[in-house]
Amino acid sequence: MPSEEFVDLRSDTVTLPTEEMLEAIRYAKLGDDVFREDPTVKALEELAAERMGKEAALLVASGTQANLVSLMTNAKRGELVILESESHIYWYEVGGVAAIAGLLPWTVKSQFGALDPADVEAAIRPKNIHFPEPALICVENTHNRHGGTIVRPEQLEAVGRVAKAHGLRLYMDGARVFNAAVALGMDVKEFTRHVDSLMFCLSKGLSCPVGSLVVGTAEFIEKARKNRKILGGGMRQAGVIAAPGIVALEKMVGRLADDHLNAKSLAEGLAKISGVKVDLQRVQTNMVLFNISNLGLTDDQFILKLKENGLLALMHGTNVVRMVTHYGIERKHIEVAIAAVQAVADDANRNS
Ligand SMILES: Cc1ncc(COP(=O)(O)O)c(C=O)c1O
Question: How far apart (Å, rounded) are the C-alpha atoms in residues 325 and 339?
Fold first, then answer.
């Protein structure tokens, strides 16, 4: 675990590389990847494409860069992109969709993160001189702001049908798509086959220090490579990033099931605490959201008191706390986390 002092449930991005990853970095064969001479990067990109059932893949620096490169590659400036209203691209990527990709984001609400095809259909307005051209639909899987919820293959398929009917592309921000696949006990290709292109992250539940992959057709990835370059994302001996990525794809996917079990235990434990409300329906993978509005504490007070009890968490919105399980978090840490929330809640309930 990153910190000896705290149980850190802020995010699965806090994970540190495994010993095997560090070894792989040490011995990676390297070259200049802008000249396409890094054999380790090539090996990772081939492996990623194969795992996702697509023709090609491209290593990029982060999930945000993966999304931006993909938006730029999937649509032209001035075109319209349909996004789920709580999506990471819309909320947390500094508006790059507009500021850099030059697209008009058009948001569609959903209850659990999966777009309703009828709502998508309604968002695609007819050809008219007043309207921007719609080019792209984005889905997110698992859905971060909805609490790590899964967009099921049949839901992707249904949105894919709408996209095809209107000649739009379908892209998946699959930062945590392996969590979705492992949770449903399915091959990840069951998800990816319904989208034209996607990205997934190495540096979240898969525990790598850096990196994400954009995946799609060979033609799409050629264009994406140039868009990565314009963003300053052409990396040289990037095999040091790719090497742990190969370890992650080979060794770290199956264990995500442990994170999901731990999240479930955490959610069930928290649900028993007076003043804490957990929406158990949303606990589908490695995230737990819970509401603390009945405790009479401000968000900052709650987070600080958790910290005093040895637990790190993040606020997800007003009165809503997020905890994320990941590599390094074991059963004993879940017990520490529940006890910490219990202590803070007991104290708040006594004083209210
Ligand atoms: C769904 C989703 N997409 C994209 C990102 C961006 O990834 P990064 O932090 O590597 O830029 C995140 C980060 O948490 C995410 O949750």
Answer: 16
**Contact, 57 vs 169, CB < 8 A?**
no
The ligand 1 site (C-beta within 6 Å) comprises: 62-64, 67, 88, 140, 144, 173, 175, 201, 203, 212
pLDDT digits (tens, 9 = 90+) for 122-151: 999 888 999 999 999 999 999 999 999 999
Q: Which of 86-95, 121-130, 149-158, 248-257 has the lowest mean pLDDT?
A: 121-130
Helices (H) and strands (E) in the chain, counts: 14, 13
What's the confidence (pLDDT) of residue 1?
A: 53
Of residues 29, 61, 326, 71, the one with CA closest to residue 213: 61
Give the mean pLDDT of 182-188.
98
* CA gap 308, 138 in Å, rounded: 40
| Alpha-carbon span 309 to 89, nearest angstrom | 34
| Predicted local confidence at residue 352, as pLDDT | 75
CA angle, 79 then 160 then 75, to 5°:
20
Nearest residue by C-alpha to atom 16 in ligand 1: 144
Distance 342 CA to ligand 1 centre (A): 30
